[in-house]
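Ticket #4471: complex job returned nothing on first submit. Input attached below:
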Amino acid sequence: MKTQMISGNHAAALAAVMAGNANRVGRGFCSGVYPITPSTECMEFLCQQSIQKGHVVRVESEHSAMGVCIGGSASGARTFTTTGGNGLIYMAENAAVAALLRLPIVMAVANRTIGPPWNIWTDHNDSLMLRDTGWIQIYCGDNQEVLDSVLMAFRVAEDRRVLLPVMVCQEGFILSHTMMPIAIPDQEQVDRFLPCLDLPHRLVDSPRTLGSFDTSHMTEVHRMQHHDTMGAVREVYAEIQTRFEEVFGRRPPDPVIPYRTEDAEVLIVAMGTISETVNRVVDRARSRGLRVGSVRVAMFRPFPSDLLRRAFSGVTRIAVVDRNISLGFGGVLWGEARGVAEPGAIVQNYVAGIGGGDVRPEHIEAMLTDLCDRKAAEEPVFMGVGE
Amino acid sequence: MIEPEFQQAACAETVRPEHLLRPGNTNCGGCGMSVALQMFHRATGDTKVQLVIPACCAAVAAGGFPFTAYGAPLLMSTFASAAAVATGMSQVARLNGDDIRVVCWAGDGGTYDIGLASLSAAAERNEDILFVCYDNEIYGNTGGQRSSATPMGAGTSNTPAGKTEPKKDILGIMAAHRIPYAATVSLAHPEDARRKMRRAIEERGFRFLLILTPCPTGWKSEPAMGIELVRLAVQSGLFPVVEVEHGARWTVNVEPDFSRSALERYVSMQRRFRKSTTAAESLSRQAELRWQELLIRARSNPSAVSFE
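Support reply: We reran it on our side without changes. The output follows.
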């Protein structure tokens, strides 16, 4: 274990390389990659590494990048790719296929707003567009989490009880291009943590069709199985967190991360790096005597309804900060979180940081003031628009 | 027409325990793709293959979960992704020293149209893949719409008066990638077909086969007349039977006699050309242009025209 100053992109790639090396005694490592800002450096780093029994294919599109991962994974290799923004939604068709084929592919997403207007900066709308495709989704808060989550992602994805792809999301530039000192594990530790992938449905010699046609009632069965598996992810995740801690000596992020929520009457809920800003505002408000706490949703799929319900118990006012907008509705996280709040609680949506707009402490302070003055929740409020 | 003599040698020994296309598949009677698959099975029976099939009639032919009409492992890819998915499979096979060949079996839509970008990219990278396009010149299982492989004059469900653009030269496109081996395959010339299929399965790097496969449903032709239609297409020069090594050495394998009556019979046997009064004329003109190019290419090759 050593400490290095690296970016989120670099952290994701480093984790993928070590995970790839760890499968050298298995079927090896295969990746298809295509550049798009802000994930480019991740694929560049991957292409500069020598991976034992591994191959990185420089393809012609994100769609094909996922195609290569599908083929590689179906042949039993550990697979990884990275993208963001319009690249991710161009990949969407094959991304959905990867999940429906139950292939344990890991993807590092450097979140970027969907253009036009063309804008390379971040928001969560790209990966949230793939919310319903059957991928596990993790949203990171710092670069250590990026590295740890990618390693966790492989182990969770490849677990026989799961066999689902995992998206590890980090906000473009805010994490992908910011250097932070993080603990880098040794290859030997990763080897201990990540057993070889043994895909039960991998293509071998005998006749078998992966991705065949289905009747309606069989599709219902397959969807239900997929959904049930999603329901089992959390238990597996918790088990693997403990294993991770044993091997690496630190705990990877919980699906829901509460901050000073013990006696809170007011909560601010967010995803990704905004939560760090929220926590500073919570500290200040606490010093003024306000009983406020914060909750960060780190795992968005499967949605941790039970953990949020517990966090929301006894809370009368909840602000949900969304760095995304489902146009014609409001924030995606808000839409899901308000369903688990206690009856009568005011759950107000604040949309902030779209297209990489800076979300500053004063924005969060303004949300808090607005929330505390409210008699009822209303339409989503846009914060700091055009500033 | 100057063509290789048929010596009954198209049927090779096969060690594959299962037929590649097994009984119980859903293909139409007289489906040219079924014939092509049978020939491919016989030609390559001693080789383990893994198939990638994008959306097309061959994908539907597999039947519903949990059964499969294919006697080999098969991954059904998205429409545009056959060559990309095959890349992943072939790279992992290489890393592990697996004794298998990865074969894409795609229709003209998944080759000429939506699949072209990933196909071109895999060819440019010279991936170790055999890409077979069975060309029935139509989007078959969506009910018969035009593709860029549909010939000029052919009526389809979205070009009811006949297509106004000529067919795309996919072999020329693939040859321009300088891949080790590219060839067109005539179902009416089984020995030539077998030799090409064998060469294509044995060669390493990217290989491309184009097979004209009559579609009685889309072409509105007699199911029993498929092989005859291919024969007429070859004889009239409409479907050149050639092979290209490294994009440079062009060889004409069957020399057509450009018979006008063969062309007219070809057109008259398919009701898809019925709405167009000038189909035979325009097809003949395109065949002529195509052959001018082909002969220039083949003449620059020392063994210009060879008949094996």
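Chain A has a mean pLDDT of 97. Closing as resolved unless it happens again.
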